[in-house]
Design brief:
Layout: H1 8-17, H2 25-45, E1 55-59, E2 65-67, H3 68-81, E3 87-92, E4 99-100, E5 110-118, E6 129-137, E7 159-167, E8 171-176, E9 181-187, E10 192-197, E11 208-210, H4 221-231, E12 239-240, H5 246-256, E13 259-262, E14 273-274, H6 275-288, E15 292-294, E16 311-312, E17 314-317, H7 319-329
Parallel strand pairs: 3-5, 11-12, 11-13
Antiparallel strand pairs: 1-2, 3-4, 5-6, 6-7, 7-8, 8-9, 9-10, 13-17, 14-16, 15-17
Helix pairs in contact: 1-2, 2-3, 4-7
């Protein structure tokens, strides 16, 4: 290993040493998610030459056709985490119910939520996709054998960590445990994540807005006026950039500044993004990076989930743009 290079494992170990009471459970969880992502990333990179792209001939809980790689990624994340003895249960976009830990394995004090392959509709056209994850602590750790399904209904502020992996021109893992947002780029020559973006901060104001403008006539008036405001901003020239892969759009805006929106509309009142394992983890990251996330009324991190797959309207990004959006929603700007 080159002198001065910090791997994900080394970074986690040094973070753990800063907390004498730490048991190492959390470190093992993040490392295991990183391991699963390497396997998923390997399959993503060769998806065009093996029989793993395309439909899996099954439907997930949302009525969406599951892609083959969706199912593969879901299984890999589950198998990387279920035997560790650190989780009491998991929840995934691809599973209708809570994923229980097999009886033969011990239970732990954490819960994991994840979207194993966000943006999977882009698999067949070689556009960046990703994995999103969040970790909660179960409410009562005095008896780890008791059911913990209701513990998933916590606000995002209860998360102890969140992150994502983006499979693009390089594979990158970004995560936060409340002490800054840190990015690690996978070096395929050694199979290790290397710290490449320590203490990531989103600019206070950006120049990019990301929204599917094909839905313009389905939006409410404040959302339309907000996008018109950005297009005709008196002091700043904005650029529209929309990939349609949440992780990819979010990652670009985190680095460059700007705003991503998937608002509710006349067809989908609550939008299409899921609170627990898409919106809340990214909101946790953006706040730790100096940004904001809202559903148009409430901070995303303050919303208490009412169901495992609850959807919410979503606006996330730099403070200036998100605050301006809220002013339009509240009627403070016309």
């Amino acid at each position: 290993m080159e002198k001065g290079v910090t791997t994900l494992s080394r970074f986690l170990m040094e973070e753990q040493r800063a907390f004498p009471e730490a048991t190492g459970d959390f470190t093992l969880l993040i490392e295991s998610i990183g391991f699963a992502s390497k396997i998923i990333g390997r399959e993503v990179n060769k998806a065009g030459i093996v029989n793993i792209i395309g439909k899996a001939q099954s439907i997930n809980v949302h009525g969406e056709e599951q892609q083959k790689l969706d199912v593969y990624a879901d299984r890999k994340v589950i198998s990387a985490l279920d035997h560790l003895g650190k989780l009491c249960a998991m929840a995934s976009e691809e599973n209708d119910e809570v994923i229980q830990i097999p009886q033969e394995y011990p239970k732990g004090k954490y819960l994991a939520v994840f979207d194993p392959l966000d943006g999977s509709s882009n698999i067949d056209v070689n556009i960046s996709i990703g994995t999103i994850f969040g970790i909660f602590r179960r409410k009562d750790s005095s008896n780890l054998e008791t059911p913990c399904c209701q513990d998933f209904f916590q606000t995002g502020r209860s998360m102890v960590a969140a992150g994502y992996v983006i499979y693009g021109s390089s594979t990158m893992m970004v995560y936060s445990a409340g002490n800054g947002v840190h990015g690690f780029t996978l070096d395929p020559s050694i199979g290790e994540y290397i710290l490449s973006h320590p203490y990531m901060k989103i600019p206070e104001q950006g120049k990019i807005y990301s929204i599917n403008e094909a839905n313009y006539h389905k939006w409410d008036e404040p959302t339309r006026k907000f996008t018109e405001h950005l297009k005709n901003h008196p002091d700043r020239e904005y650029t529209s950039r929309y990939i349609g892969s949440l992780v990819a759009d979010f990652h670009r805006n985190l680095l460059k500044g700007g705003v991503f929106l998937y608002p509710g509309d006349s067809k989908n009142e609550k939008g299409k993004l899921r609170l627990l394992y898409e919106c809340a983890p990214l909101a946790y990251l953006i706040e730790n990076a100096g940004g904001m996330a809202t559903d148009g009324e409430r901070n995303i991190l303050d919303i208490l989930p009412e169901s495992l797959h609850q959807k919410v309207p979503f606006c996330i990004g730099s403070k200036y743009e998100v605050e301006t959006f809220l002013k339009y929603k509240r009627g403070e700007l016309k």
